Amino acid sequence: MKIGVVTFPGSLDDHDASRAVRVAGGEPVSLWHGDDSLRDVDAVVLPGGFSYGDYLRAGAIARFAPVMSVLIPAAQGGLPVLGICNGFQILCESHLLPGAMIQNDHRTFICRSQRLRVENATTAWTSDYQLGDEITIPLKNQDGQYVADRSTLDELEGEGRVAFRYLVADASAHTYDRFAGRNPNGSYRDIAGITNERGNVVGLMPHPEHAVEEGYGPSLDGLKFFTSVLKSVVNA
Amino acid sequence: MTAVAKLNIDTVGDASTTPDTPQPWAELGLKDDEYDRVREILGRRPTIAELAMYSVMWSEHCSYKSSKVHLAQFSENTTDEMNAKLLVGIGENAGVVDIGDGWAVTFKVESHNHPSYVEPYQGAATGVGGIVRDIMSMGARPIAVMDSLRFGAIDHPDTLRVLPGIVAGVGGYGNCLGLPNIGGEVVFDSCYQGNPLVNALSVGKMRIEDIHLAKASGVGNKVVLFGAKTGGDGIGGASVLASETFDADGPAKRPAVQVGDPFAEKVLIECCLALYAAHVVDGIQDLGAAGLSCAFSELASNGDGGMRVWLDRAPLRDATLRVEEILMSESQERMMAVVAPAKLEEFMAITNRWDVEATVVGEVTDGKHLEVLWQDELIVDVPPRSVAHDGPVYNRPMQRPAYLDALQASAPDHLPRPGDGAGLRAALLALMASPNLCDKSWITGQYDRYVMGNTALAMPDDSGVLRVDEETGRGVAISTDCNSRYAQLDPYAGAQLALAEAYRNVATTGAVPLAISDCLNFGSPEDPAVMWQFAEAVRGIAEGCRTLGIPVTGGNVSLYNQTGDVAIHPTPLVAVLGVMEDVARRTPSGWKTPGQAIYLLGSTADEFGGSAWTEVAHGHLGGLPPRVDLQRERQLGEILVTASREGLVEAAHDLSEGGLAVALAEASLRNGVGARIWLDDVCERDGVDAFTLLFSESTGRAIVAVPPASEDRLIALCSAKGFEHARIGVVEDEAGALDVRGQFTLPLDELRSVHTSTLPTVFAPR
To answer: How close does chain A come to B141, measured CA to CA in Å?
Structure first.
């Protein structure tokens, strides 16, 4: 089972995404931004990082890379694609997912272990979770505030396409938590991740690939992203 | 060529025929006698380009002219035992040590103090960028960064100007580079007002056979400049900015600060690693302080000695730059390689793949001259060694500071101490909320500690721990430490205390300490009192390393950290690197499992000079710092490493600032699991009262949490070395509190609330 991991100039978590694929039992395949080939992979991960320095807008330049010219139609045709952090930003810039990412509302980079709730356990990347599962995986970003207009948000909610939501700590009970009472980047409706209508394209800001090995991350909660897609590819 | 262009260039020929042309050596930072020496070396006046090169390379920052005579102690104190693990020592871009299984690790800590005061974001960002390039230039893949930051008083307005920018700069650059930030320090002390310290560390890994060195050899080999174009930023950064004291007018030297582009550096890292893997690089040098002046002269001086450069081939960001500016520019994200002609095509193919601009700007020649041409006119013709290595050396006057006797006599014995449990409770809360001991996650939460997926421990644990080999789990632990209050009271002891603490922190996580790097931050070397402090600190580190059997691999000296005639406290920062066979066995600082026994290793005396309690409770600094016994630190280290290897302890935490009380509070807060503690037996054994046991800062101590089944083995381990150990409590979850029997109970929620609110209240008010 071959899972492609794209490296753009400035990609940072490509090595980690490949490791997560391997840990889950898949075969990672490196894809290069400048090649217009997907090398016959069964699914693709767009990893985190600062592609092209995030200059102009996060993901705005990567969206025009040669590899995207083949990835976009493949995703529209049903190829499972996961965009993590910068990858999510690229998916939004490519219009494979709706909405956009802007700077965190507190204007600083934030790195923390983040609790999320699984809101859709039927996508290609989430089928090993149960609806309502609460997971803890790293969050690390500067431009992680998910925004969209109200009708788009309503449509996402209505169609069950919000895949992950930030769990917000109770402000009165956790006075020492900087993010008690609010989500960690100001995302509208606490949205951490979404899917397309077909459920093959998923984007999220937090990093499941950093939570797949005992001792090197806050949990093993991220592994099911990768086991899910391996099964969905088998079943497809 | 046009006559106009020629008119603007001062050639070697011109210099020979116009000896009396006035030259701006003083403005460039050279002293009168240094200028005279340049004329003597060349047998004529220097050209303006030569003058620029000498001025930056002979600056304090680049030449170590005031510190050199003292730094020699590091090599004089290095024994064969210490050398055994050292693959590359002092003098290269960074030292390299052998961590076993064919792996080499390089690490170094470097200051970027002055630029960070002038322009906090770019100063700190390029501090990270510079040290990472040093690591790259050894042939290594950078695998982490750390940063030790020191600011003025937390409530001083300038701290509010400087800190957010510096933190954002460290994060902005390191995060975008994809390097986990795994530790460091944040210290507030009014002595750093106007002179904040930014000490950045980077660590890299490589196979031993992949080590690269900075030298240009092989006549006919090409000198390739690659990476970013050269611009007008950072001109005179090393000479004018880093090698002078700030005056009372404050920051006015903005153009001397470099501007960083972390994206360009990330691409450069990957490009360099691809070049190394293809074996197309003979010699490699990063461009940092003194820019091209440094790269040309050091590569040539370290190699065969001759180099010819066509400077007009260097790609420029600004075509109006003058030749001397091009030679002095400290534009970031540039590297220089020496490449055999037969490998050049492959070299260029790799740089092309990474969209990195690469230009052949020169070649290695026979002979002993560094010749730089501009449009075919010779503008530099110097012996490279005279620029890079034979700069002036000063044996500056030293004098023990006049104030030191009075300071040391002002012992903290007379300060009122808390007399009951309520007083001890209040003292602990005050310490845990104090700027230097409070929770730093408002800052560390702005740094990516997860990227690369090899971080086994990061702040606030005692040291950062990284997996190096993904198959075996072999890895390293690193800690940086310095308590400059101790060093102010006694710089020799203060330096050894910094070494002892960093050593202890590394051993606490279970790693065997292997080597150190240091960053020596002091005031003006022209002040005999500062020079004395410097010499004492260097002696302390050199002799301490000999006792511990670990070598100094390199480091950095930052002088002129003073405003007017007020210097910072001596701040000899020490970074210790240790090795672990499998980082999965590392020991974290917080306990988790109720029922485990808590042991205190080491003994406690009444030692409050320079302590956190005297600062927080009384604003006092005086007396003598705690005694340091490095033999005992070595024994404690061996116990902690063995305990980790044998899986005897669940948690271990070093005792330092704030003593036992703060260590217990931190170990409880780490996972939100409390403890019940009895002090009486140890008080009786050591002959101290509860206050002293809780808050004294005696060295050579740690606490460990031990499963009942392992207690006998731990006791046997300590007894075999005659090392004091005592069961002082038990991990306990039910009450959710730190309960010091007979003295006080502190609910963890209350503790956490005061501990975590200090920084957000000041820097991110809601």
So the answer is: 13
